[in-house]
Amino acid sequence: MQTSISIRVWSLLLMFILGLGVNTYLEQANSRKEIQACYESNVVHMVDSGKSILSYYQQKAERGELPEQEAKARALEAISAIRYDGGNYIFMGNAEGVSISNGIKELEGTNIMGMQDPTGLPLVKRLYEMAAAGGGFVHYQWPDATNKSELLPKTSYADLFEPWQWTLGTGLNMEMLQQDFLRAKETGLINLTLVVISVGVVIFFFVRQLISQMSLVVRAMSQLAKGEHDLQFRLKPKGSKELIELANSYNQLVETLQQLAQSVYSDGERLRKASQGLGTTQYSEFPDKPAENIQDLLHAIKRIADQNEQLQHAHINLRQLAEKDSITSLLSISAFEQQVVSGLQQVNNNVPHSLYLLAFDQDLELSTYGADLLSERLKSVAAELKQLLPLHMRICRSGDSRFMFWGTHTDFSEGMKLAVKVHQKLQQMMQDTSMSLGISSVIGESKRYELMHSEAERALLRAQADGGSKVYEY
């Protein structure tokens, strides 16, 4: 079985990189353990120092040099003043779980034995248990200072000062610990990268020296990449196995690019015709023949992209026109239904919302109006609705002389209040014609659009059957 030199060399480099990567990973894991152990040793030392301070004042009280209460007060003052690692502190609590020294001043004097982390772990109780057992670490979760929704791992150490039955402890500076972890990781990755680059460069020159005959192919590929090579040019397959394979690959690539150039030219022609058909005032100048090199091909692709963007804008404009009612400039019924159905899918379970159906009570009388007068009436109602309704509500003209609108509320009663307000304003504006309004209200997404529309329709019919000029809710 024949294997090229490049495959053997690069395979050897790949195995070396994999081995080096595994070694780097193991070293980083060991580094994390060592850094963690160093930080843990530091907090144990700080707690031991705190115990030494307590012991010093306890012995002074035992020898009668200080009253016991004064000795405790001085010891508490000394430990409360300790700060290290950029603001870290030693916390203490008495035997009943009352905090007597804490970096959070609001907690001092309160019993925090029942305090839990967001996962439900009774962390203070666990700290007391570890302290009573001779000292130990407790791992828990705590909200991030800047992003309360994100939980971060925390670790604290606690020990017991038996003469006074005080539990004292301190936490690891997790921010500095993570920074040290990150620095160790970055150092390992930089070293790995430097080694890989160094070895890769050495192998590159080694391979280049062995297969110097590939320079012809390299130059051809370079010129092609720069866009300077004619797509009609082909390499002659000759020389070693590697050279023949490279020449064939190059020729296949150029053939593909040539086909792509032809395809781009054809697509450009179709876009040009489509632009003219849509009546766009500007469109890019397309070449009159397929591209002959990469640069020309890139320019042709860019021109097609520019023209495609113009067509998209034209499509958006047409779609916006199609979504508007021709008389009132409100949403069309189809656009309204699509937006309401989409809005219902996004409504939370505790959010109230309402669908309103507004209609003139005297349709027969309205039918006797001229088209112009009826249009003016509809425009007036539409303009008033735009002024009265919140901006987030969807509004459309439904049928010849009906209107529908839908939106969410902050309170369930707000739907009826809004309906009454709209009805009163419209009746004041159109005193010669009465209107009725039917409402379907619900909380959450328990009702589909079709059901809400049916309920609003029935409420409207009931309002009109009771004499009209009414607001009924289903």
Widest beta sheet: strand line-up = 2-1-5-4-3
Low-confidence stretches: none
The average pLDDT is 82
N-C termini distance: 83 Å
Shape: flat
**Main sheet?**
5 strands, antiparallel
Percentage of β-strand residues: 5-15%
Q: Whole-number radius of gyration?
A: 40 Å
CATH H-level homologous superfamily name of the largest domain: PAS domain
CATH architecture of the largest domain: 2-Layer Sandwich
Q: Strand tally, please?
A: 10
Describe this structure in words.
The chain has 474 residues and is of the alpha+beta class. The chain folds into three domains: 5-178, PAS domain (Beta-Lactamase); 242-321, no CATH class; 333-473, Alpha-Beta Plaits, CATH 3.30.70.270. Helices cover 56% and strands 14% of the residues. The protein contains twelve helices and ten strands. It has helices spanning 5-62, 68-80, 123-132, 174-210, 215-225, 241-278, 294-322, 333-346, 363-367, 371-388, 414-429, 449-465; strands at residues 91-93, 99-101, 136-143, 151-161, 166-171, 352-360, 394-398, 402-408, 435-443, 471-473. Strands 2-1-5-4-3 form a five-stranded antiparallel sheet, with helices on both faces. A five-stranded mixed sheet has the order 7-8-6-9-10, sandwiched between helices. Helix 1 (5-62) runs antiparallel to helix 2 (68-80), helix 5 (215-225) packs parallel to helix 6 (241-278) and helix 6 runs parallel beside helix 7 (294-322).
